[in-house]
Amino acid sequence: MTSLGAQRPRSPHKDGSFGKAPSPDGERHAAAALGLPVEGTETILPDAGGIFDAIARIGYEFEHAVADLVDNSIDAGATDVLVRFLHDRESVYSLAVIDNGTGMSAERIDTAMAFGARTGKAEIALGKYGLGLKSASFSQCDALTVVSRHQGEVVGRRWTAQNVRNDWLCESIKSSAAEQYLVKLSDRLDTARDGTLVEWDSLDSMSHSSQRPSKTIEARFNQLTSHLGLVFHRFIEDGGIRIRLDALDPDAGTRGPPQEVKALNPFPRFEGVRGYPRTFIVEDSDAGDLQLEAHIWKRNATEAGFRLGGGRLAKRQGFYIYRNRRLVQPGGWNGLRNDAEVHTSLARVRLDLPPGLDSLFKLTVQKSSVTMPAAFIESLNRRLLATRHSATSSPTPSVPTEMSAPNRHAMAWSRRPA
Predict the structure, then answer these.
(1) Could you tell me if 243 and 228 are in contact, meaning their C-beta atoms sit under 8 angstroms apart?
(2) CA 114 to CA 164: how far, in whole Å?
(3) Contact (CB, 8 A) for 351 and 333
(4) CA-CA distance, 275 to 177, in Å (whole number)?
(5) How far is Cα 191 from Cα 80, in angstroms, rounded to an integer?
(6) Strand partners, 149
(7) pLDDT band at 184, cuts 50/70/90?
(8) Of 284, 340, 295, the residue nearest 320 (C-alpha)
(9) Half-sphere exposure (CA, 13 Å, Cβ side) for 272?
(10) Pairing of strands 242-249, 80-87
(11) Do residues 112 and 145 touch, judged by C-beta distance below 8 A?
């Protein structure tokens, strides 16, 4: 008899040895290159220029890059964010994002400027990979300056493309000069105690534009009001944050009136089809039970959230996926059906991803889309088939009569099974 706390005698393996039994993977590895004996290790550092070029070419659109900076502002507890275009008579040469968040100490700003640093952000944070500030910025510019005030103390750091390539040389900005600049550009919000300025200089797309600065700024305003209004619509709607855009000509000492970003809710508040939204559950062994909410717009809806800034309406259908209340995928069916299918062009489905599923639903660095796991797509298809069967066997129509016959078939999956 073995007493409590005593170890049971170990049994030998088939070869007579003791210890942990080899796993099937271990046996396979022993027969592969992974099983070759090692005689030592050495540190091989990556080439700074190659790493920088790879990060700068991740593929951000302008509006996605700016949204990444706003993520950092929200994570810092900001309630007021100003996106400012700096220009002269010839061109737009800089862009600054200024907020009244908690700011950063010298230690914290060094961590924020590090490429791929583990920032210790909680699962509820909008930032994720430790790359957003740098990758978003260098996709648009050749110089990134960060000035931050935390509890009255001001610190500043600057990366330039050349200094990154020159073995990661980050510049420390003189505190008094950093403070003067922060005060100068914070004329429309309060950064007297805390706040941060992120500035892009040597802009790739705007500095060399043949357009007049006013035309360039107008086009960028249109892009940003639509994109930021959509991505952060929940934060704007509940009054948690105000986002404004303006333009400043420092040489002339003139600034344009601020333009406030309005929330663009992609789901109907007043002009949806009767009987919607409908909520249903998809059961998946890996993701658990996920709740989806299906909405259908009326064909001639006039709410701003229907058109979402214009373009083909069919491209606006599909899944609207949120992570921590921030929109990370604005439409698209993720392979479930054709993204341009006209018969489902009025359909939008909301999915809020729990923070713990980040690794399962692979989020792009740009936070513009996710890759749904194959098992979840299969579970969703099973749910769809079960709902279609229920709709076919039920004497009650599964969708409202406002929809055409093809739409009834396409959207039957949004009905709860009987």
Answers:
(1) yes
(2) 11
(3) no
(4) 60
(5) 10
(6) 154, 195
(7) very high
(8) 295
(9) 19
(10) parallel
(11) no
What tokens were used for 73? 């502002």
Residue carrying the six token digits 């005689």:
39
Please provide the distance, in angstroms rounded to a whole number, between the alpha carbons at the two ends of the chain.
Answer: 57
Ramachandran sector of residue 82 (left: φ over 0; alpha: ψ -120 to 50; beta: rest): beta
Which amino acid, 276?
Y
Note the pLDDT of residue 401: 33
Q: Which amino acid is at 252?
A: A
Please give the distance of CA 113 from its chain centroid, rounded to a whole number.
Answer: 19
> What's the CA angle centered on 108, arms 106 and 114, to 5 degrees?
105
Helix ranges, 6-47 (H) = 24-30
Q: Where are the alpha helices (DSSP H) in 114-195?
A: 132-138, 161-165, 175-185
The DSSP code sequence of 128-147 is: -SS-HHHHHHHTTEEEEEEE
The pLDDT of residue 120 is above 90: no
Question: Measured between alpha carbons, how far is 245 from 154 in angstroms, rounded to an integer?
Answer: 24
C-alpha 62/C-alpha 172 separation (Å) is: 27
Q: Which pTM value belongs to this model?
A: 0.83
Residue 365 to residues 12, 64, 130, Cα–Cα distance (Å): 49, 10, 10
Give the list of residues 6+ apart from residue 310 with CB closer than 8 angstroms, or none: 226
Residue 389: pLDDT above 80? no
d(CA 87, CA 94): 7
CA distance 399 to 397: 6
Query: Would strands 141-150 and 278-284 be described as parallel, antiparallel, or unpaired?
Result: unpaired
- Does residue 370 have a pLDDT over 50? yes
| β-bridge partners, 371 | 362
